[in-house]
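We close this part of the discussion by returning to an individual protein. The encoding preserves chain order, so positions in sequence and tokens coincide. The sequence in question and its structure tokens are set out directly beneath this paragraph:

===
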Amino acid sequence: MRVISLCPSLTELVFDLGYGRDLLACTKFCVHPARGVKRLLKVGGTKDPKIGDIIALKPDIVLMNDEENRQEDYEALTERGIVCYSTMPRTIEETADMVRSIAAALGGSPKGDEIAAEIEERAVRVSTVAQGRDPVTFAYLIWSKPWMSVNRDTFAHALLSNAGGVNVFGDRTERYPEITIEELRAAAPDLVLLCTEPFPFEPGHAVDLSVDLGVPMDRIYIADGEYLSWHGSRTPEGIDYAESLMVGETPSAGGAVSLKE
């Protein structure tokens, strides 16, 4: 099968499902696995794919994500007869279903069931343990100037709440609400998580925010965005990673433990 992936997490999933040799191309933002994507053609970015190049490659299927990719690109490809498979899981359960469905779409790799089952098993384990602890309130920040957070209709919220977290901005109407420093101070979360993507938060940002909020540094963490926002084969480790944040097993401010390869 001739496959193109326009979403970094799906590119990684294709390799982990055992279909890396079927991949023709990916985006310039696809970085995992490093050795695997190095050989692939690059067809632009997630928001600006090179439609002409994709069509010329005559793929059997193009993997997309409803949020990472644009509807107009999906339509431009399907209008030319290209089969596009787009997904957007918002919960752990939906992620397990997505893994199984993509495995089936690519040929039925048994790895799909293995990865999905591991996602489900780890989620139950972490959730069960979390029920025996006091909940931890958190604010998950994805952008600066303006400050932006996430509501309950997001994958990051699902992972962190499964681990016993309570999102102080979970009830906001917008999926990615803008917030003020005053609102963050008033919410007084136990933890402020500065995600490494899409905004590349670094330790210096944690220091500045600690001063602005008037809270100690041990309440501010740099959180690895790949484990909290990439859904797919990275999700089992993401579930455990979320738990480590909720129980304080990662270093604050200087950067949460990275599980990158």
Summary: DSSP finds eleven helices and eleven strands in the chain. Residues 58 and 84 are 12 Å apart (CA to CA).
